[in-house]
Specification:
Blueprint: E1 2-3, H1 11-18, E2 31-32, H2 40-51, H3 55-66, H4 91-107, H5 114-125
Parallel strand pairs: 1-2
Helix pairs in contact: 2-3
Length: 138
């Protein structure tokens, strides 16, 4: 596979495209072609693609480079709108919060309990209340 202008693709796209080759028993190659000069970000993306095929490492690098975006909303990159959390430094705490949120939604999917109402208020205060309708989507 030859990917032309690879510098214009994101890490996830490049990793997904590269994963399309080599699935059979025959030998395969994926060539990433780019148009110089490369920006610093494009050079970093191509370097990580050259260094590894580990999807987890690629995803971590992508997160570090692009930022988390709006986890609940629609922005796919940039700085998250969290006022407290740091996704990169507090991954364990975020995982615990995710488990707690899932448990709450299993017990109270409509968020009608006292705790659910408190969560609705918190989301409103953090200007994420419009996302409540997206919670059931998955």
């Amino acid at each position: 596979m030859v990917i032309e202008r690879a510098e214009s693709f994101g890490l996830a796209q490049l990793h997904q495209l590269r994963g399309r080759v080599g699935r059979g028993t025959g030998a395969s190659t994926c060539v990433l072609m780019y148009h110089a000069p490369l920006s610093e970000t494009a050079a970093q993306r191509l370097e990580i693609m050259r260094e590894t095929e580990d999807g987890f490492r690629i995803a971590e690098t992508d997160l570090a480079m692009r930022g988390a975006g709006d986890v609940i909303g629609t922005a796919q990159s940039g700085l998250p709108r969290f006022r407290v959390a740091d996704l990169e430094r507090q991954a364990g705490l975020m995982a615990m919060a995710r488990q707690d949120a899932r448990a709450l939604l299993e017990r109270d999917p409509a968020l009608n309990s006292l705790r659910g109402q408190a969560l609705r208020m918190l989301m409103w205060l953090m200007e994420q209340d419009k996302a409540i309708r997206l919670i059931g989507v998955g």
